[in-house]
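Private note to self, pasted from the team thread so I don't lose it. Backbone tokens:
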């Protein structure tokens, strides 16, 4: 089927202006919410300002009530209670708020050859070579033995230092240049350059000692405090427009904060729906959704039990419709050989729907039924939402997964529905403003569906 660019489709309306205005707020969010903890803080603060209350402060939620549930400070559920009982099912949009990055190791501080470094372990699927010779920032928390939490945020402030991982100069890289891209930068060489001045009173490990003194003076933390720290290394800088026409947005963390943000904003626009509208924002999708803040945990079920004590979760879930809101791989003409164009999303042409993900033979994937797809098509068509069906590249080229399979395991009807990206999993990814705005419109329509 022919795909029409959204700005062309809506050329006689103020659609383009609305999309651009929406994306200004989205860029501001991306710039300040570079970790899952920061995402939760941002969403909770804004939810409170829009009338949401902690589920534990609401004794018996009724139709129209707005509630949220924080799980381990790294995942979140929000809902607008509907007119129907929970047993009738919910309209659920599930996204994730973690993104590929580097994490500091438990004992990160080291000295080599007159430099101090921070050792890292990469998180999620990255191309390691993309992280060298690029400006980096540090975000996270250090929890001391006395229970005090120290927040770390350095690299993005106007007068902050930045951090770097060095690369080998071309003049000495003849061997490196012949290696596979997966081998040219080993994981253990992703060491963050953190300092070079020695402590003037030390003879051995003087540079490391100097760095540790700075950390103690600035943050009140010791080397042992890193054992109970979660510090993430992320690309430095703010979200920016791309192109002379400013039609696109480049940023770290589009995957999957573009879907999390649009779903959250859509929920804010939801009044009293027929069915309870729920937005689930999970952690750890990039590493398999395991752990007590990931989608394989049961925090959604715990939340529903708080909404209606004694509810049969099985009955709720079998009657639930879910959009697994995750990003898709936009057709990239520079790498056309790995895409099957007819089944690839085109930039600026609307929300991307994937009936299945997985890899090579649909491995590791759930698949939306024909009945569910028909329902979703009708919801979107009735609300003039542009959407396009796609797969994740050619059949034998690879693939990927989302949280869809874990929600499907609970008995819900699920289909992937998100925004297409260029350069997915790179330090800076690219999304089209029209697709971002259309996702927001699509999630509004879905949450109000009967």
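Design output:
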């Amino acid at each position: 089927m022919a795909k029409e660019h959204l700005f062309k489709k809506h050329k006689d309306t103020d659609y383009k202006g609305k999309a651009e205005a929406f994306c200004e707020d989205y860029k501001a969010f991306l710039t300040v919410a570079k970790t899952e903890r920061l995402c939760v803080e941002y969403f909770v603060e804004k939810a409170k300002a829009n009338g949401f209350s902690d589920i534990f402060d609401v004794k018996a939620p009724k139709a129209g009530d707005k509630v949220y549930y924080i799980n381990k400070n790294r995942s979140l559920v929000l809902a607008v209670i509907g007119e129907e009982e929970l047993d009738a099912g919910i309209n659920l949009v599930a996204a994730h708020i973690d993104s590929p990055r580097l994490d500091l190791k438990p004992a990160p501080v080291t000295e080599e050859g007159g430099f101090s470094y921070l050792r890292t372990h990469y998180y999620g699927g990255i191309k390691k070579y993309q992280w060298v010779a690029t400006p980096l920032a540090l975000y996270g928390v250090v929890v001391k033995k006395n229970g005090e939490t120290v927040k770390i945020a350095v690299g993005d402030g106007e007068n902050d230092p930045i951090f770097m991982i060095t690369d080998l100069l071309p003049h000495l890289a003849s061997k490196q240049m012949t290696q596979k891209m997966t081998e040219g930068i080993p994981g253990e060489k992703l060491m963050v350059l953190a300092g070079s001045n020695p402590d003037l009173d030390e003879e051995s490990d003087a540079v490391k000692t100097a760095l540790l003194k700075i950390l103690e003076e600035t943050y009140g933390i010791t080397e042992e405090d890193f054992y109970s720290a979660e510090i993430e290394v992320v690309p430095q800088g703010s979200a920016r427009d791309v192109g002379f026409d400013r039609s696109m947005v480049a940023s770290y963390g589009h995957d999957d904060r573009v879907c999390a943000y649009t779903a959250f904003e859509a929920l804010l626009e939801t009044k009293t729906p027929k069915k309870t509208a729920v937005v689930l924002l999970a952690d750890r999708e990039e590493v398999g959704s395991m752990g007590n803040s990931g989608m394989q945990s049961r925090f959604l079920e715990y939340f529903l039990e708080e909404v209606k004590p004694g509810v049969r979760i099985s009955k709720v879930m079998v009657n639930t419709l879910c959009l697994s809101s995750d990003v898709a791989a936009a057709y990239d003409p520079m790498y056309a050989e790995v895409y099957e164009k007819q089944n690839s999303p085109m930039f600026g042409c609307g929300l991307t729907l994937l009936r299945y993900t997985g890899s090579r033979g649909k491995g590791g994937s759930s698949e939306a039924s024909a009945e569910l797809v028909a329902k979703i098509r009708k919801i979107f068509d009735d609300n003039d939402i542009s959407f396009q069906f796609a797969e994740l590249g050619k059949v034998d080229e690879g693939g990927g997964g989302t949280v869809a399979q874990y929600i499907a395991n609970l008995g819900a009807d699920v289909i992937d529905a998100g925004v297409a990206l260029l350069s997915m999993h790179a330090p800076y990814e690219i999304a089209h403003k029209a697709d971002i705005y259309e996702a927001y419109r699509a999630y509004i329509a879905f949450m109000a569906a009967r």
